[in-house]
Amino acid sequence: GFISSSELYEPSTSIWITTGDLNNARYGHTASVLNDGTVFVAGGVGNGSILNSAELYNPSTETWTTVTRKLDRARQLHTACVLIDGTVLVAGGQGKSGYINTAELYNPSTGTWTTTTYNLNYARYWHTASVLTNGKVLVIGGLGGDGVLSSAELYDPSTRSWTITGNLSYARYGHTASVLNDGRVLVTGGQDNSGIILSTAEFYDSSTGIWTSTSNLNNTRQHHTASVLTDGTLLVAGGNNHNHFRNGAELYQRL
Known about the structure:
Layout: E1 6-10, E2 15-19, E3 30-33, E4 39-42, E5 45-46, E6 49-50, E7 54-58, E8 63-66, E9 79-82, E10 88-91, E11 94-95, E12 98-99, E13 103-107, E14 112-115, E15 128-131, E16 137-140, E17 143-144, E18 147-148, E19 152-156, E20 161-165, E21 176-179, E22 185-188, E23 201-205, E24 210-214, E25 225-228, E26 234-237, E27 249-252
Antiparallel strand pairs: 1-2, 3-4, 4-7, 5-6, 7-8, 9-10, 10-13, 11-12, 13-14, 15-16, 16-19, 17-18, 19-20, 21-22, 22-23, 23-24, 25-26, 26-27
């Protein structure tokens, strides 16, 4: 069933500790660490219904509080990222009547939602969203009305508008996108329009809007994770490949 529990990991002891339960059990939601240290959870599916609710976790009290204002659109499998000004951009996803091309901003200081001036150029879900060093947000790939997407678009917070940028070399969803220390975005894995799980990886250069392929992963994988480590290397872990789930991990380090 749907899960409302949450846990804390303590790195100094390598121990997991149970903390307060969400007010609404959910999956397919997002979780974002806000500038004040609270955690903002939005959307998802709970009890068979796509949700328009959001909650805040307070680490000092270990409790969840339901946000009074609802999202404009109930959505799951969307993205959420914290912008430079501290607001949260929620984009795309799957709604009650199909794929979503709208985006909305949550302002933690007022607790209110504002729909962006313009919609995404493509409705999409199971995509990624990355905050670039210039403050813009790069949304990549995903699933849409035409299947698996190769398109990418940029959100400009100053105009609240979306602009198409260069296409991926490979259409994909269920991939990862990580902003590296040099400002480039590295996309790994995912699944293409033919149902093939990918091992390909590619870089996005925000100064040119161009994608460049790099060496392949050692294993094909989708719905995995990718984390930039303190030394700048990228740790890719887990995921699946149709027939089985992966417990392996690999490191990407540019030579």
